[in-house]
Design goal:
three-stranded mixed beta sheet; elongated; Alpha-Beta Plaits; 3 domains; Alpha-lytic protease prodomain-like
Length: 394
């Protein structure tokens, strides 16, 4: 495979994808190949567009020229994102990669809007398109090159998990669609005098705008704080429960400061009767081992849970049964019993799905409903409830 040969030739230690320097070299390779390929494509399509007098082909050419700018932004983005952390940016500069992707997206949108105007003018004032075989063949070759470039971006983007390179792959694939439509319009122009060129130019412009919209979404989401990768969430949950004396985990928070710069925190439920020194050693080891295995920085907070008090265990079982009558509640945690005699407070958090948006009144109704269910077991007990949302699916 050509892309693998290029990687082996130009990326030193290419298999060590967690190394920031190696990752940077992948970004440079993707950017440089993108620049060379798109300059070639621009030259081919601009020449063809000029020869056959086609606004659709010319629009497609300038779409490729915008991709040259995108590749330059990608290169600078990888360079700047690998700057070390400093006093003003203690978590590094990794999000610059997302910002560079956002700049690329706006460049794509600008090209799309410009060619909507040009295509509209061509519809109002049509001029004939001259079909010839050689330009037609050159456009077919350009499509094949763009298909390869899309697969190349996807390959290296998956290897280093780069949203910028993956987005470039999607953008290249959308170019294949737009170029295919342009080639089709050029072929159809041979058989009709209708001003199809301007209409196809509008279609190409729409494809460009749609690609720009998707690029903005893909790069804006991590900047705004999108939900973390589901596989990462599941791995953290699974790995932490593998350690001795950790019986449960909840309240996972994941913050993305750029590729390879993820900070996470989670609460781990541990027996309250175990030595603090012993459980601290386990928690400390879990933090280090999970962080190294997943290439993140994990902080674990200990939540002591009573496991040898029959009254508390019974109350926990009663709460489990009571919550079965309330489908909106997925789980509960941080359960403890406070007070003496018959009158006791049951303090705990309940977790509802992130899709459920409760008003303050609805939240109070939920707490009241849980209390009603609990009082069926112990009328003198009172529940003090905090409502959590399960944004991460754990």
């Amino acid at each position: 495979m050509v892309s693998d040969l290029l990687i082996k030739k130009f990326v030193k230690n290419y298999s060590d994808v967690k190394n920031k320097k190696v990752r940077e070299r992948y970004g440079y390779l993707g950017g440089i190949i993108g620049i060379l390929a798109n300059i070639l494509l621009f030259g081919i399509k601009f020449t063809v567009g000029t020869l056959v007098n086609s606004i659709a082909v010319t629009a497609d050419a300038f779409n490729n020229l915008s991709d040259v700018g995108s590749s330059l932004v990608t290169i600078f983005g990888f360079k700047l994102s690998n700057k070390p952390a400093d006093k003003e940016h203690p978590f590094g500069h990794g999000r610059i990669e997302y910002i560079s992707g956002l700049i690329v997206a706006f460049l794509v949108l600008l090209i799309g809007f410009e060619f909507i105007k040009s295509s509209f003018e061509r519809i109002k004032n049509p001029t004939p398109v001259e079909f010839s075989v050689i330009p037609f063949v050159l456009l077919l070759v350009s499509i094949l090159l763009k298909i390869w470039l899309s697969r190349f971006y996807k390959n290296i983007g998956n290897k280093i998990n780069s949203s910028a390179l993956k987005a470039s792959g999607v953008d290249a694939l959308s170019d294949v669609v737009s170029s295919g439509v342009v080639v089709l319009s050029l072929f159809i122009s041979r058989f009709t005098s209708l001003p199809i060129d301007g209409y196809i130019g509008m279609v190409v412009s729409a494809v460009i705008l749609y690609a720009g919209y998707n690029l903005i979404k893909d790069t804006l989401d991590p900047l705004l704080g999108a939900a973390p990768d589901k596989e990462l969430v599941e791995d953290i949950q699974r790995m932490i429960l593998d350690y001795d004396h950790i019986d449960g985990a909840h309240d996972l928070l994941v913050h993305n400061y750029g590729p390879g710069r993820i900070i996470a925190s989670i609460h781990a439920e541990v027996p309250s009767n175990i030595s603090v020194v012993k459980i601290h050693e386990i928690i400390d080891r879990a933090e280090k081992e999970i962080s190294a295995a997943l290439d993140i920085y994990l902080v674990i907070h200990m939540d002591p849970v009573t496991t040898d008090d029959e009254e508390i265990l019974a109350a926990r079982e009663e709460l489990t049964d009571a919550l079965k009558a309330i489908p909106i509640v997925k789980s509960f945690h941080d359960f403890r019993v406070v007070g003496e005699g018959e009158k006791k407070n049951l303090i705990f958090d309940v977790v509802i799905d992130a899709d459920h948006t409760l008003t303050k009144a609805e939240e109070l109704d939920l707490q009241k409903n849980i209390n009603v269910q609990l009082k069926k077991f112990h009328p003198e007990h009172n529940a003090i409830i905090t409502v959590d949302k399960d944004y991460l699916g754990v």
